[in-house]
């Protein structure tokens, strides 16, 4: 199911490194929304608003003061490498009827039957890139793994995708599998080497 987050955003009148630094000191995060064939719009959001959409894979409805509503997806959230502080957010505007490429997390649901036989669930792929209509962007792809038996697997082609969504990439890749745990055998300790006789020892006569 599509998940849309609505935010009210103000236009950012001042740009540049110094201006952005002053905004962040006040708890305001610089942002920009990129639009095809239109001028980009510089925005400012509160810290709480950014945290709300940082890991959001779905649609963001931005009500921009003085402009109106623009639907967008989050393209990038930049953080400072040293202390992980939020620096800025990039949005990409999307139009009705067009498809977008988004990366969506994949999560298991249920407990595999194969666990009772001593197996363990392994997740090989944790996110997928989809081409999908904006209204169909899922927040997460939940996969029911409860029927998986020992030595069975679920591939990308088996995943439940919403609406007109298509996977970008190889659909034969394994996403989940149930396997017996790998047991590492301990190597026997090497026998201590025999002490060599002193090099200057002389034969007794």
N-to-C span: 96 Å
How are the strands of the biggest sheet laid out side by side? 1-3-2-6-5-4
Mean pLDDT: 85
- Cα Rg: 28 Å
Low-confidence parts:
201-205
Outline, from the CA principal axes? Answer: extended
Question: How would a textbook summarize the main sheet?
Answer: 6 strands, mixed, barrel
Describe this structure in words.
With 205 residues, the chain is mainly β. The chain has helices at 17-25, 47-53, and strands spanning 4-11, 28-34, 41-46, 59-64, 68-79, 86-93, 100-109, 120-123, 127-132, 141-144, 153-155, 166-167, 174-179. Helices cover 8% and strands 40% of the residues. The chain has a six-stranded mixed beta barrel. The protein has a four-stranded mixed β-sheet with strand order 10-7-9-12, with no helix packed on it. Strand 5 (68-79) and strand 6 (86-93) form a beta hairpin. The longest helix is centred in the N-terminal third of the chain and has 9 residues, at 17-25. Residues 201-205 have low confidence and may be disordered.
């Amino acid at each position: 199911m599509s998940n849309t987050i609505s935010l009210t955003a103000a236009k950012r009148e001042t740009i540049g490194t110094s201006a952005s630094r002053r905004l962040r000191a006040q708890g305001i995060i610089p942002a920009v929304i990129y639009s095809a064939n239109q001028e980009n719009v510089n925005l400012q959001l509160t810290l709480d608003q950014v945290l709300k959409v940082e890991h959001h894979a779905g649609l963001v409805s931005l009500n921009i003061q003085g402009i109106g509503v623009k639907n967008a997806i989050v393209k990038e959230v930049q953080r400072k490498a040293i202390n992980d502080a939020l620096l800025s957010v990039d949005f990409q505007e999307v139009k009705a009827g067009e498809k977008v490429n988004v990366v969506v997390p994949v999560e298991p649901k249920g407990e595999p039957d194969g666990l009772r036989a001593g197996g363990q669930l392994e997740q090989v792929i944790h996110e997928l890139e989809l081409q999908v209509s904006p209204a169909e962007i899922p927040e997460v792809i939940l996969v029911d793994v409860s029927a998986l038996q020992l030595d069975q697997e679920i591939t990308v082609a088996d995943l439940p995708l919403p609406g007109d969504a298509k996977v970008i990439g190889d659909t034969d890749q394994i996403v989940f599998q149930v396997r017996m745990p790998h047991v590492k055998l301990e190597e026997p300790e090497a026998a201590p080497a025999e002490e060599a006789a002193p090099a200057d020892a002389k034969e007794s006569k």
